[in-house]
Known about the structure:
This protein is of the alpha/beta class. The protein has one domain (2-170): HUPs (Rossmann fold, 3-Layer(aba) Sandwich). The chain has helices at residues 14-27, 50-61, 72-76, 82-93, 104-107, 116-120, 137-146, 173-181, 192-200; strands spanning 2-7, 31-36, 67-69, 98-103, 124-129, 161-165. Helix 7 links the parallel strand 5 (124-129) and strand 6. Helix 2 (50-61) packs antiparallel against helix 9. The model has no long low-confidence stretch (mean pLDDT 95). The site of adenosine-5'-triphosphate has 18 residues, from helix 1, strand 4, helix 5 and helix 8. Adenosine-5'-triphosphate is lined by residues 7-10, 15-16, 19, 102-103, 105-106, 128, 130, 169, 171-174.
Amino acid sequence: xxxxxxxxxxxxxxxxxxxxxxxxxxxxxxxxxxxxxxxxxxxxxxxxxxxxxxxxxxxxxxxxxxxxxxxxxxxxxxxxxxxxxxxxxxxxxxxxxxxxxxxxxxxxxxxxxxxxxxxxxxxxxxxxxxxxxxxxxxxxxxxxxxxxxxxxxxxxxxxxxxxxxxxxxxxxxxxxxxxxxxxxxxxxxxxxxxxxxxxxxxxx
Length: 204
Ligand code: ATP
């Protein structure tokens, strides 16, 4: 199985990396593909350019043999719809099961994503528990309908949802940007090469 972690990564931080590592381990994924959004459609414009965000993701994943950067949203340009990304990966990977991972905060907005039902016809979802977050409203109903224990994920090709409790790291890119904007330290919240990159390029 292959994991997919989409995000704005403005910037990528240890919360993202730990999410990917713990879900990879829990579900015995062969690989996790980090997919930086060129233009995230459901939020305001990122502060750093797509090229800088992609460069930081490259720096962040370089020392993990299970992690790779997937540049398809960057190359495609325009609004980065996850349904297009999943369809393109499905076309490439054939029958291999794909697992789209996200934090609970992102899952709570999932039924507002473009063509979310189509996404569930292409991939499984893995929801990582993030500090303070739980499934609400339509997301809670969807989870109740499609929930599956991790060990049974491989028995269906697509459309199951697993919850993976992960170590709570209350780190957000928003907080890192705020710290950086007022000249405060961002050390130990993100990988050293990423921290050096954003300082060198005065990104935030
Ligand atoms: P921002 O603060 O700019 O909104 P973010 O830190 O939430 O950004 P995103 O790039 O929007 O990062 O998130 C990509 C994915 O990573 C989402 O699925 C989100 O739920 C998850 N994620 C982000 N931070 C954490 C964290 N600390 N722990 C677990 N998952 C996280």
